[in-house]
Write the structure tokens for this entry.
Amino acid sequence: MRQQTLGVLLASTVFLSFGLQTSVAQETSETEKPLTVSPTMSAPSATPDAEADTEAATESENAAENAAANSNYVAPAPIRDVDEAIVEPILNTEPRDKKSIPLVPDSPVWDSFHGQLSAQKYSPLSEINANNVGDLEKVWEVHTGDISDGSGDLPATVWSATPVFANDTLYIGTPFYRILALDPATGAQKWAFDTKSTLKALTQPALKNRGVAYWQAEDPVEGEACQKIVYIGTMDARLFAVDADTGKPCADFGDNGALDVNQWNTRKDRFPLSMLQPPTVTDNHLIMGWAGSDWQYSEAPPGAVFSVDPQTGELQWSFDTIPENIRQQTGTANVWTAMSVDEALGLVYLPVASPSPNYWGGNRKQQIPYATSTTALDLDTGKVVWSRQWVHHDVWDYDINSAPTLMDITVDGKEIPALLQATKMGFLFVVNRETGEDVWPIEERPVPQGDGSVEGEVYAATQPFPTKPAPLLDQSKKPDVWWLADLVGGGSCSALFDDLSYNGMYSPPTTKGEGVLTYPDSAGGVQWGGVAFDPESQTAIVNTSHIVQYIKLFARKDYDQINGSSGNEQGFHPQLGSPYGMSLMNAMNWLGMPCWEPPFGELVALDMTTGDVKWRKPIGESQRYGFFMPESMGSPTIGGPAVTAGGLVFIGSTMDGKVRAYDLKTGKTLWSDQLEAPVVANPAVYQYMGQEYVAFISGGNSILKPTVGDQIAVYALPK
């Protein structure tokens, strides 16, 4: 009997160790003075930094003059060291002139990365509904051929694109940086455009693409080319513009259809940029951030956001997230993910990342108020209207990684123009999108301080905690060890957890022992797919990942002797220019089995009139190399949902490569289908010739499993 039991346990070990061997991952000063943060909701005076962008646009005299004239760094005054700073919210106290533009379009629209500029990922279509979604069938699929598993000369592909439906065409970008224009009903190719960009992993470990953007002239000139334009960015930081009807380059945009965004990179010789997220397009503005190399350097390029003319690429304004006087010693705080826009208020909302280096802040002891924040800019000027920092002095790489979702909600009988910002921490912050003020109270609470092992560091004494909605992950205690993983691992999980320091949420990095336990991990409780919203029921839908990670800092001399390797998100990373290299690992037993208790991923519905959870359930099956865990344990997720007026939630995002439809009211699974690789993107919902379609891109991401794909799959009801 004992032998039989051991056999079962060993089988379970193999089964489960392959099942979730995911590579999702992603300080004190010498006087140990904490950074104090005031919860006061006053609006400090703000003064523009006159020198903010004088080094921008090095290849264009006109662009340089424009950048200098339109510098938009606005910081609370005065800038202080973090050991004496008071970081307060920047709030808007002046009413905005509001245009008569509805937040939710009157007709079905899916012409941007998140469906609409509000990032609601909502379709008013209801032909497909809870009663008939079980009849949904695949009506066409296309394999692009733009695929690499990384075993040959090319890096692996990570295809996270959402199809864009506009101009009676489905536009799709590929990880080989091509644009495909397809018939929405059949998938037949209308045209294709190849950027012929480099296929080298310049800033990322893989060839990544999140799709395309679309623009059309409000008053098109008959007979003129490029009155409708499709844009795609590339790994080498070029933005291409082509005619949406023909696929031919737009000669007036940049240099014959290609704009070199690296011209505005003040450190381009050492630290190139990449354009992997499609730009945000609204009216006469094309607004873009950029991606760079994480965890590698202290002196990475400082974060900047650019607005250019959609037809010419001429710089309109730029916004810098880092104070001018410390840009030479720290960088990033960039916007690498999607943004959202309220056209009626004339605001663009930036989800801003953390500064560099990610896990040591001794080189940035002055406050950086726009880092790890949601910041609202005036669309026409790029000037700050309001800003809320969600992590003070971020040393956890807790980038704000998804576009905030804009919504109109009714709370205690009052209609509120709200913004919901999902975060890696699993917090959902809800504020008034016009002013930045709390909808439900956001409290500054004391957080753990350092253990004295990290030289030159300071820590924030408090961090913002929302009172509603409740955190999507339980951060009230140290995650529990999964008994099965500990048993079959011979106690290795409990031994690891015992050796990891942990004093609660925001426990800082350390050089001691095996490091510090971090939960959620640096890839996030919520990933860049963000939150979907049904305006009829005022229900928010969000998928989460539950991953435990541990981080350790190594003194430079010790790090340089480590014979480690860096993987996609996990492994060893140098943080060059700082006194510490670092490692980050998922908490696994020696067989690769997750040490923390399931579920590993969930889908959650929230009532946005109260902030309460309507329902939550595990989503997906964790699997690797053909081994499975039951769906009751859930799967880590990358990507996000879409919701429809038919009362449905459509989502891929899981390790098992399935796409699913859930009942919006109950969370019941109503339909699913198997695709060739994980769908690490949001689906698109569109209507063509009177029929409703749901489109998924099955591209894969090695963070979830090694399988990659090149499949576009489109579903509809049988005619």
Notes: Residues 1-71, 73-79 have pLDDT under 50 and may be disordered. The first helix runs from residue 2 to 19. The two ends are 58 Å apart (CA to CA). The chain has one domain: 112-716.
